Structures are given as C-alpha cells and as structure tokens.
Amino acid sequence: MEASPRMLGSVRPDGPVLTSKREGALVKAAQRGSNEAMEELFRRHWRGAHRAAYLVVHDGPAAEDIAQEAFISAIRALDRFDRRRPFAPWLHRIVVNRAIDWTRARKARREISGETIEAWDPEAPELDLDALADSGRMEAALRSLGPEQRAVVVLRYLLDYTPGEIAELLDLPRGTVNSRLRRGLDALTGALPREDGDV
Amino acid sequence: MSERKRTEERVKAALSELDAPDERMAEERGRQMLEAALAEREHTAQRSRVTLRAGLALIAAGTIAALAMTPAGAEVREWIADRIDSGEKNADPRLTSLPTAGAVLVEAPSGAWVIREDGSKRRLGEFDEATWSPNGRFVGVTDGTELRAVDPVGKFRWSIEADAPVTALDWSPDEGFRVAYLAGEEIHVVTGDGVSESYTAPARPIGPAWRPESEPDEAIHHLSFVDPQNRVVTVDTDSGRVLWKTGQFGVPVGSLEWSDSGQRLLVSASGFTTVLDARGNPLLKGPIAANVSGAAISPTGGEIAAVTRGPQGTDLRLIGPAGEERRLYSSGRDDPRARFGSPVFSPDGKWILLPWPEADQWLFVNTDDRRVTAVADISRQFDADGKGSARFPEVAGWCC
C-alpha cells in the first residue's frame, strides 16, 4: 500500500499536496536543466521559505534576502543534491540557519547606549502582552524568544515538521528541540487570542 | 483532544495568519531573481568557456529585453528616455530632509558636516577627512598628522598625533573599541580612546575595513586591508595573526567594504569589482560587472550598488547575489559620459545617495521602486562663508 501523501509544509500558496515521489520527479527534472521544474519548486516553496525567514528575523528586507539566497544556494547545489531526499527540509535548513546567523549578527551590532534592536532572554521571556494590540501579540511573543527558539517554533508550527525532523534538520539533540518547543509554546500561549468561554 | 494539542493547533493557526511584509512583491522579486539565476545556469552550461563577466552582461541584456516586451518594460523605456539632460530637471533647490532615518556625513572644502534626517546641518570644523563610528556616536576626523574624535555636534573627545598625515579612518564595529588608520605607508590600529597602539603593518594607501563581529560575546577585531603586494589581507589585530590573504590582484585595489553581516567583502578597483566571502574566497568568478567606477555593498550584504558606464549612458545598477542586475537609474543615452560619484546606501538599505558632481546634484534613489528625489546646488549648501566652492563635497557615510 502506498503511503498517504505527506504535506511538506503548512504554508504553501497553492497547488495540491505534494508527494515525495512527485517532488523527487521535479528535482530530477530541475537537475536535468528544466527551468519549468525549478520554477515549480520555487512556486511551491517560496512562500514558506520567505515567511519562515521573516518570523525568525522579523525584518522584511532581510527575510527576502535570506529566502532569495536560499534559492540561489539550492540552484547552485542542485547537481549534488540527492533526489531521494525531500527538497523542502534541505531548503528550510538553509533558510533557518541563515536567519539565525543574521539575527545573531544584528544582535552583535546593537547600540551599547541601551537602545537594543532586540532584547530577549531565552530562559525567561518578559513581555507585557497587555500593552500590545491583539493583532501584534503573536508576533511580539515570537520576537521575545531567542532566534534558535524561534527557528524551532517556526519549523514546528509554521512548516509542520515533527520534533524528530527538526532535530535532524538543525543537527540538535531531540531533547533540546523538545525543551525549546515547550518554552516557545509557553511564551506563545499567552499571546493567543481569547476564545469563547475563556475567563 | 488534549489541552496541549489544542493549544498547538491554535498556535499553528495564529502563525499561519502572520504575513511577511509586502509578500506579493517579494515573491515577484524572488521570481525575477530565479529567472536570472536560471539564465546564468543555462548560459554556463551551454558555453562553459565564456567568462562569467560576459554571462552576467548577457543576463542583464536579456532581462532588459524581457522587460521591454512587457507593459512594465514600456515604463522602463520611458523612464530611460526621460533622462536626457545633465542632472534631474525638477531637482529641489535645497536639501530639506533625508528620505529615511540616519545622518549623512559630508567632507566639503569648508570642512566636515553632519546632516540630520530633518535636513538640519552642522559644521564640525575644518578637517581633511571624517568618518562615523559604528553607531554614529562619534565622528573621527583628520587634520594633517592629527587624528581626532569628536561627537556629532563637534565636541572634542580625544586626539592622537601621528608621524605622517593621517588618512582613511575606520572604527571597529564593537562601538569603536579600535580605530584603524593609515599614516605614511603603514596601517595603524589604536584603542578607541586613543590611548595605545595595538597593531602596525605595511599597507597600500587604501582605506582599511573592519569585519563586523559575528560572535557578540567575543571581542574580535578582524581588519582587512591591502598589503604592499596588492593582496587583501585580513588579520586579528589583537594577536597579529593573519587570518587569510588573497592572491595578488592584477589591478590596484581601490576600496574595501564589509557588509554589516560580516559575510561579504566588496573589493573595488578601477573598472573591477568583486565580492569575497568571510574567508576571502570569491563568491562569483570574475568581476561582478564591467566598467564599474564606484560601488557599495548593501547593509545586509545581499546587493551591490554599482555605477557602470556603457554606450547607453552611465547607470546605477543593483546587483544581486547571483549576479542578477537591475538598473535603478541612468544618465541616459544623450549624456553617456556622465560621471556619478560612488553610491552610498542608507542605513536601512532602502535608499542610495548618488552624487552627481557635474550636475551639482545629489540623487536619492529608492532601491525598491526606483523613485528619485534630486537636490540641486549641493556645493553652495556646504559653502560656509558663501564665497562659492570649487569642489563638490564628498559623502563620507550615511549612518544609523
């Protein structure tokens, strides 16, 4: 019995659910020089890559650069890519690692006058959610996490990877992924919009 | 469903609602980048002996040709045709504001000036050169053999005296704990309070460039400069250890500039511009564009702004990571020999200040939509005594 198609990402603009077999065919065609196949891969994965980058760096132009650079890297390395493996995790690994690097570099440049570009404490996020408008709560809560935590949260809850896949993708111990997810979820829960019945 | 599972589903739903800014246009730009990159791949595969330099020119030509066949291309043609006279016709007579946040540092015959976002100007004094500290808290100025640090309103902080005229200051990115400068035929590094000297080496008279730190907790002071053999060298100035050096360049290197990310180093020479990675390896084979007279790297390092000259005029081009080009501005075919000064990125990377000495204008060019705001009569605006100035002022930086 053929395995049911697995969704490769929650954030995809259009198109049917991709099976790994179908994606393998696209990668194979792209490797053979088909621009149409590469464009199809772009169409399927751009939005997820761009959003993931944005939710880690919280900077529009940087997110765009990161997503573009990830695709450029993918094109340049396509000949060496093992097409038996899925394309999306490979791309997302590039995106997320670049986004983390960019965020660390930005933090390194913060003003010593105290005007920090980004203030975060991975152990104890402090955020006055009451002071934030509802629409910005989730983004602000995400921003209160460290970049490595944000990356794990984005991979899990935006791109729909399992903790095991995230551990493999980021080369982290499974326990580290789980603890980052737990802390991330705690921080984000407070920012969720109220539901009917909430007291 | 468990409470945790339900919370996870709600978080997923909430995250899926968070859009990145300008998603549609970003995707379109991404698609254009992809097309250029695929054209590069195709071209390389078909004609592997052709240099990348020629390939990029073809890509640029192909992109322009493709644009010209689209409705947007018609706008591009009109936009190019409009630029037929020296200088912008509808330039503002005075600089009343900058188009985005930050402050511009200017070196004029009358001295160094700081221009704030609201257009207000302050003259710091009669100095030869001026440069921002990384976060704009200080300005380093030179006066003969003296190197002086002042604050942005001109208040003196410290100074040192060198044995030879001091040029080409650069402050280390960790808020200026080190300052590098050239004096005679040597590069010198002093501590950011001017107290002690930590490094000296022979160097060509090209401005050094500190590599932005990538490890915030470590005091890393990595400096790139050009050695007497015309090689780009990067050293750890605290230990004196050479981290890497390139081979000898065939033409004299003219300038070095690190991206804010510390991942890309722009190396410019007469007609030649290339980008190295953090280990000194070229990111693209060969120069990134032909006939480059001035270039700058964007704050994120993702793009290069280059002034190039060709039969269609002098252009300001934006070159992406794969070599894909976008023409942001052109002097036009009727003014093919226009000479622009070196472009300067705004701190947010969204604007480029393009000096145009012949027209006595500054152009502010938007990197997204190519909007242009021109300001005329620039020389006179930095003429402190009103006697008129023979020299067009230099833009020394646009800081945070």
- Class from secondary-structure proportions of chain A: mainly alpha
State the shape of chain A. Answer: globular
How does CATH name the architecture of the largest domain in chain B? 7 Propeller
Low-confidence region ranges of chain A: 1-19, 109-135
What percent of the residues of chain A sit in helical stretches (DSSP H or I)? Answer: 55-70%
Number of helices of chain A: 8
CATH superfamily of the largest domain in chain B: YVTN repeat-like/Quinoprotein amine dehydrogenase
End-to-end gap of chain B: 50 Å
Calculate Rg of chain B over CA atoms: 23 Å
Oligomer: heterodimer
Largest sheet of chain B: 4 strands, antiparallel
Strand content of chain B: 35-45%
Helix content of chain B: 10-25%
Q: Predict the CATH topology of the largest domain in chain B.
A: Methylamine Dehydrogenase, Chain H
Quickly count the domains of chain B: 2
Uncertain stretches of 5 or more adjacent residues of chain B: 47-85
Structural class of chain B: alpha+beta
Q: Would you summarize the structure shown here?
A:
The complex is a heterodimer of chains A (199) and B (400). Chain A is mainly alpha-helical. Chain A has eight helices and no strands.
Describe the 3D structure:
The complex is a heterodimer of chains A (199) and B (400). By secondary structure, chain A is mainly alpha-helical. Chain A is built from 8 helices and no strands. Chain A is globular, with a radius of gyration of 18 Å. The model of chain A is unreliable at 1-19 and 109-135 (pLDDT under 50). With 400 residues, chain B is of the alpha+beta class. Chain B folds into 2 domains: 3-85, no CATH class; 103-399, YVTN repeat-like/Quinoprotein amine dehydrogenase (Methylamine Dehydrogenase, Chain H). Chain B contains 5 helices and 27 strands. Chain B has helices spanning 3-16, 23-46, 52-68, 71-82, 378-381; strands at 103-108, 111-115, 121-125, 129-132, 139-143, 146-150, 156-161, 166-171, 178-183, 186-191, 197-202, 209-210, 222-226, 232-236, 241-245, 253-258, 264-269, 272-277, 292-297, 304-310, 313-319, 325-330, 344-345, 351-356, 361-366, 372-375, 394-399. In chain B, helix 2 crosses helix 3 (52-68) and helix 3 crosses helix 4 (71-82). The longest helix of chain B has 24 residues, at 23-46. The interface between A and B is large, with 51 and 52 residues.
